Amino acid sequence: DSLEFCTNTSAGISVKNPVLPYYKYLWSNGATTQSTTVFSSDFYRVEVKDDINCTTLDTIKAILYKLPSISLNQDVIVCAEDSVKLYNLSGSLPVAWSTGEFTDTIFVKDMGSYSGTVTDDHCNNSDTIVVNNWPPPTVGFNSEEYFCKGTELELDAGEHVSYMWSTSETT
């Protein structure tokens, strides 16, 4: 028998018998409980004794596959109407996106949560990115202003971080 796990760290294996208080366990890795944690692919033996020292031995092969690497770019805020490029920073495998696309890179405009999944011969792994939209600043003038040629009219665009007037002035 064998058990296969997709993990970057460890996996738990356990004996599937009733948990009775008088059962004693001894695993080949030294564990003495019904379950043990394994950190590498190998054969693991368990010895189970009851209260009158009847013993059963069993061996299991644990196969630990490393998860394929995926790391999407960080959550992002973009100006409404703009799109953002989403991609796997580890770049090792094509990505199956929650949008239905299967490609290394996608461009999205809508805010929301996007996930990507990569798959190798044994395992798959996923990551998620959140895209938020920042609304464009609003500018409005109170009314139409009339003024005579040669005089000045002061325009106020409101409180914003920066400005670019049609005259190329920035204040």
Describe the fold and architecture.
About 0% of the residues lie in helices and about 40% in strands. The protein has strands spanning about 1-5, 10-15, 25, 35-40, 40-50, 55-65, 75-80, 85, 95, 100-105, 105-110, 110-120, 125-135. The strands form four sheets. Strands 7-13-12-9-10 form a five-stranded mixed sheet, with no helix packed on it. The chain has a four-stranded mixed sheet with strand order 1-6-5-3, with no helix packed on it. A hairpin with a 5-residue loop joins strand 5 (about 40-50) and strand 6 (about 55-65). The chain is an all-beta fold and about 170 residues long. The mean pLDDT is about 85.
The helix content, as a percent range, equals under 10%
Main beta-sheet strand count, sense and barrel state: 5 strands, mixed
What would the principal axes of the Cα set say about the shape?
A: rod-shaped
In angstroms, what separates the terminal alpha carbons? 75 Å
Q: Uncertain spans, ≥5 residues at pLDDT below 50? A: none
Give the number of DSSP strands: 13
**How many helix segments?**
0
**Quaternary structure annotation:** single chain
Decide which structural class fits the backbone: mainly beta
Q: Kindly state the mean pLDDT as a whole number?
A: 87
Give the strand order of the largest sheet, numbering strands 1, 2, ... along the chain.
7-13-12-9-10
Overall radius of gyration: 31 Å
> Could you spell the SSE succession in H and E letters?
EEEEEEEEEEEEE
Strand content: 35-45%
